From TrEMBL:
Protein name from the UniProt record: 1,4-alpha-glucan branching enzyme
UniProt main location, coarse: plastid
Record GO terms (molecular function): 1,4-alpha-glucan branching enzyme activity; cation binding; hydrolase activity, hydrolyzing O-glycosyl compounds
Active site as annotated: 327, 382
Family membership noted in the UniProt record: Belongs to the glycosyl hydrolase 13 family. GlgB subfamily.
Record keywords: Amyloplast, Glycosyltransferase, Plastid, Transferase
Pfam families: Alpha-amylase (PF00128), Alpha-amylase_C (PF02806), CBM_48 (PF02922)
Pathway involvement of the protein, from the record: Glycan biosynthesis
Length: 712
């Protein structure tokens, strides 16, 4: 109730003082560089909020970095500096398109600094320079729809796709998406990677590191220019072309947005912008994140709210993103940032003095903005705390997100693989973690994300197969074999299928993990020290060798990576056909610790997982809700998935059901469950063993036509 009252009061104050919520959240049309008029002349308005500055001028290529008298701004009563630059006599802008620009200001203590404007739309770093420069981005011409041309503004050609019933998210990073050791571009990603994602069956991409960040190794999480497109990968218009092409393919485009903290970089970023340590941030110790070595926003500050809310709207308005994954939300919502703190679920942990009410109310405001202005917008919050009402609408008093990232699942899989041998895997504990989420609050489940792929951690494939991946991934007949690799491939498929089927109402996979990418991610870096511990961290000499994705491994006919890639594609297309990821009917009928079997229903499908390392079961009875007959539509043991065909669609077996209570289900049927396999059974009317031989067929998937509930 207290949060709700704070929220209402802020909304009321915005309406009374700013001309409404819509105008307040369009700060980018007022601040920064905008075309406009002054005393009958057309030109460029530049505005910057810097209340602590004593003087401010605009410098750049346009004035040879020496401000004339007419290039000095005036400060209004609210601490905003204003400057108007009329067009040249020939009608060209005073600041040409794609030229460097900074603001030169005098701080309260008399020091002079050159800063990149806080609302800049693009910032670049020359190859022979350390510092970034702001770049005025205002193409003189408008391109035809879909046209990518220099000095022409990109015009979108395709509409946003409809909001999917369930998200199958492909988390990706444009810079490291190349097969070669280089920084990839937006246009190369558009041409080479988007078709892969669509072919796999994902319906959404979540792009990391879009906001400009001067330190590449931060993975995009130490943002320096919040309105600027990451220039390493290309121009603003090239990013628009990428988004437009994704929309043509029917892919929803989500942006990994960082509003939880900002880079401490005072040269390239907004930290100490006017010489004070407050401004957009909390002053003193509260404004510094000790673990991340970054600045913490003051979400109760009026101009901070304007800046961040406008930023959220900017990327939706200008670049046609379809929504956001908000990073580090747990850190935002609590004064302790969720560090050195264990959440038990007690409501006192969420509704008390630990909670930063200003931050929670800001999240309510941004979700209010996004869902009211963009009805099809999708917002996902990275929260590990389990905050109640996190995924309930703002008008219910909730925080307003559509989904919470189900972060505990990845940690559980690491715990299971790291600490327990195969005979000690606890079926009940695994299922509990997969399904442990708040009622009526949707989650995005994932077995692993970019966090597990970074150097210092291990992907699931690496945990399962480790160094054997380097020597024993050849298909039989093409090289030596390994039981460790055989086990790893079997469990990799099972872990991913049970996670997509039980882990949430949507699913996420990080780029390359679908085929068991063998290398961790290591961004180019030099020797450094951990800011939280002071520990020395050796660099890698600035190498890009491990900052790429080896697509050639998945494409190779003689390597086993193709098996994992094919299985991932099949389980995504199975969701297209049956909609099981978000199906309301979810019933777990068996968690057998002795047999190591898990049996459950999701929608019309029956899933059978045998995690036992050695024991296979004949005529194993499994419960189901609906009377049969059933047929096999997906088996991890198909040859195309690197299996042994002990259970395969090719047998075209029909499984008749028997009435009578079994595992609290009204019907049951008997199956063969080989060790370390998973199988999915569907109503026989929607099964076709020859489906993958048809033009639209997916290898290994036995779904008739497009399935009963087909949706992209």
């Amino acid at each position: 109730q207290y949060r709700w009252n704070v929220f209402k009061n802020i909304r009321s104050a915005i309406d009374q003082n700013e001309g409404g919520f819509e105008k307040f959240t369009e700060g980018y049309k007022y601040y920064g560089f905008n075309r406009g008029e002054c005393n009958g002349q057309t030109g460029i308005w530049y505005r910057e909020w810097a209340p602590g500055a004593k003087a401010l001028a605009l410098v750049g290529d346009f004035n040879n970095w020496t401000p004339a008298d007419s290039h000095w701004a005036f400060k209004n009563q609210f601490g905003t500096w204003e400057l108007f630059l009329p067009d040249m006599p020939d009608g060209t802008p005073a600041i040409p398109h794609r030229t460097k620009v900074k603001c030169r200001l005098e701080t309260a203590d008399g020091h002079w600094m050159d800063k990149i404007p806080a609302w800049i739309k693009w910032a670049t770093q020359e190859w022979n320079e350390i510092l970034f420069n702001g770049v005025h981005w205002d193409p003189p011409e408008k391109g035809a729809p879909g046209e990518v041309a220099e000095n022409k503004a990109y015009t979108f050609k395709y509409p946003r796709p409809p909001k999917p019933r369930a998200l199958r998210i492909y988390e990706c990073h444009v810079g490291m998406s190349s097969q070669e050791p280089k920084v990839n571009s937006y246009l190369e990603f558009r041409k080479d990677v988007l078709p892969r994602i669509r072919a796999l069956g994902y319906n959404a991409i979540q792009i990391m590191a879009i906001q400009e960040h001067s330190y590449y190794g931060s993975f995009g999480y130490h943002v320096t220019n919040f309105f600027g497109v990451s220039s390493r990968c290309g121009t603003p218009d090239e990013l628009k072309a990428l988004v437009d092409e994704a929309h043509r393919m029917g892919l929803v485009v989500l942006m990994d947005i960082v509003h939880s903290h900002a880079s401490k970089n005072t040269n390239d970023g907004i930290n100490m912008f006017d010489g004070t340590d407050g401004m957009y941030f909390h002053g003193g110790p509260r404004g510094n994140h000790w673990m991340w070595d970054s600045r913490c926003f003051n979400y109760g500050n009026w101009e901070t709210m304007r800046f961040l809310l406008s930023n959220a709207r900017w990327w939706m308005d200008e670049y046609k993103f379809d929504g956001y994954r908000f990073d580090g939300v747990t850190s935002m919502m609590y004064h302790h940032h969720g560090l050195s703190y264990t959440f038990t679920g007690n409501y006192g942990e969420y509704f008390g003095m630990n909670t930063d009410v200003d931050a929670v109310v800001y999240l309510m405001l941004v979700n209010n903005l996004l869902h009211d202005m963009f009805p099809s917008c999708i917002s996902i919050g990275e929260d590990v705390s389990g905050m109640p009402s996190f995924c309930r609408p703002w008008h219910e008093g909730g925080v307003g997100f559509d989904y919470r990232l189900q972060m505990a699942i990845a940690d559980k899989w690491i715990e299971v693989m790291k600490l327990h041998d195969d005979f000690a895997w606890n079926m009940g504990n695994i299922v509990h973690t997969l399904t442990n989420r708040r009622y009526a609050e949707a989650c995005v489940g994932y077995a692993e994300s970019h966090d597990q792929a970074l150097v210092g951690d291990k992907t699931i494939a690496f945990w399962l197969m480790d160094k054997d991946m380097y020597d024993y991934m050849a298909v039989p007949g093409m090289g030596p074999q390994s039981l460790i690799v055989d086990r790893g491939i079997a469990l990799h498929k099972m872990i991913r299928l049970i996670t997509i089927a039980l882990g949430g109402e949507s699913y996420l996979n990080f780029m390359g993990n679908e085929f068991g990418h063998p290398e961790w991610i290591d961004f180019p870096r030099v020797d450094s020290y951990d800011p939280s511990t002071g520990r020395f961290v050796p660099g890698n000499g600035g190498s890009l060798h491990l900052c790429r994705r080896r697509w050639d491994l998945a494409d190779s006919d003689f390597l086993k990576y193709k098996f994992l890639n094919a299985f991932d594609r099949a389980m995504c297309h199975l969701d297209k056909a049956f909609g099981y990821v978000c199906a309301p009917n979810t019933y777990i009928s068996r968690k057998d610790e002795g047999d190591k079997l898990i049996v459950f229903e999701r929608g019309d499908l029956v899933f059978v997982f045998n995690f036992h390392p050695t024991q296979s079961f004949m005529d194993y009875r499994v419960g189901c809700r609906e009377a049969g007959p059933y047929k096999l539509v997906l088996s991890s043991d198909e040859e195309v998935f690197g299996g042994y065909r002990n259970i395969t669609k090719e047998t075209d077996a029909t499984f008749q059901t028997t009435p009578g209570n079994y595992d609290n289900r009204p019907h049951s049927f008997q199956v063969y469950a080989p060790a370390r396999t998973c199988a999915v059974y569907a109503p026989a009317a929607w099964a076709d063993k020859d489906a993958d031989r048809k033009p639209h067929g997916i290898p290994g998937l036995a779904v008739k036509d497009l399935g009963p509930y087909f949706s992209r």
